[in-house]
Design brief:
The chain is α/β, with parallel strands linked by helices. The chain has two domains: 5-213, Rossmann fold (3-Layer(aba) Sandwich); 223-322, Helicase, Ruva Protein, domain 3, CATH 1.10.8.80. Helix content is 46%, strand content 16%. The chain has 15 helices and 13 strands. The longest helix is centred in the N-terminal third of the chain and has 19 residues, at 5-23. The relative contact order is 0.15.
Length: 324
């Protein structure tokens, strides 16, 4: 294991440089920005949910500007077909077969899937398959996506007509779900100043893909003690209503609890947060800090929980506070 202080310090400097550049464009939202970058370094995909106009798309577009990576944006609509994002075959007189594969917008390092819940399940499945497998199969031919490959999908909670909510099993493919809070008065004024003034905010390119992969590899070297792994497992099992260690709130309000992917997300995020805190080991507070983003989209409330107006966050906060 090669957890030298110099590498850890460089990791923190590079991470903070990313936060600083994004902060030049995005007002507030420091927790949201940090969690998006944690997912980036942990090589996980992100689902961002929030009301229109809160900067979801701007955040992801800014991330594409400060990273020396190929960036593409896909506006999901009900008439979008899988070939529109994966690619298609076109005629090519030079090719011996008379045709060639033309890659779609999914062949980028950083993909913004804007308003993913507006696309049909067929197109959603094509995207989520690429997220899971890291490649695309078209007419029997497999095409590998370049690395790093990160999908950031947005959806608006108030869009009801003409939308196709992601099935729970497909939501589980996302490393985390981040909710965008509404800005306060001071932040609203700052947003207005930045967007209605003469001067535009300029950001610089901070890192490239090779450095992102180096940081992702270094994170995996951070040790998590058996006690920490047992704590992560206890958090996940406490959400399972059929488990002998289930929290009372889970038994009463949850239909399906978090999956094993939830534990993986907790540990990977914990390793990133440990390095940012100047430690070379994961602690319980690291897992608690990322419990809601990692587990909220993996919790399905039962009828009683929904009828009483509970949310996944409400139940998870009780569970996280009780697990020792």
């Amino acid at each position: 294991m090669n957890l030298v202080p110099e590498k850890a310090e460089q990791f923190r400097r590079d991470f903070e440089a990313l936060e600083t550049e994004i902060g030049k464009v995005i007002v507030g939202q420091s927790v949201l920005i940090r969690h998006v970058l944690v997912a980036l370094i942990a090589r996980g995909h992100v689902l961002i949910e929030g009301l229109p106009g809160l900067g979801k798309t701007l955040l992801i577009r800014t991330l594409g500007r400060i990273l020396d990576l190929n960036f593409s944006r896909i506006q999901f609509t009900p008439d979008l077909m899988p070939s529109d994002i994966l690619g298609t075959e076109v005629l090519d007189a030079v090719n011996p077969k008379g045709r060639r594969f033309e890659p779609g917008p999914l062949f980028a390092n950083l993909v913004l899937a804007d308003e993913i819940n507006r696309a049909t399940p067929k197109t959603q499945s094509a995207l989520l398959e690429a997220m899971q497998e890291g490649n695309v199969t078209f007419l029997g031919q497999c095409y590998t996506l370049s690395q790093p490959f990160l999908v950031m999908a947005t959806q608006n909670p108030i869009d009801l007509e003409g939308t196709y909510p992601l099935p729970e099993a497909q939501r589980d493919r996302f490393f985390c779900q981040l909710n965008v809070p509404f800005p306060d008065s001071a932040e609203l004024i700052a947003i207005a100043d930045r967007t209605t003034g003469v001067q535009e905010t300029d950001v610089r390119t901070v890192l490239d893909g090779h450095r992102i992969l180096e940081m992702a590899s270094f994170v995996r070297e951070v040790p998590a003690a058996e006690e920490i792994k047992r704590f992560a497992a206890a958090l996940v099992l406490a959400t399972q209503p059929g488990s002998s260690t289930a929290h009372p709130a889970a038994q009463r309000l949850i239909r399906f609890g978090a999956s094993p992917r939830g534990m993986q997300a907790l540990l990977m995020a914990g390793k990133v947060l440990a390095l940012l805190d100047g430690r070379y080991h994961v602690c319980r507070d690291d897992l608690r800090a990322f419990a809601l983003p990692a587990l909220r989209h993996r919790i399905i409330l039962n009828f009683e929980g929904q009828a009483e107006g509970h949310t996944a966050d409400d139940v998870l906060e009780q569970i996280v506070a009780s697990v020792k």
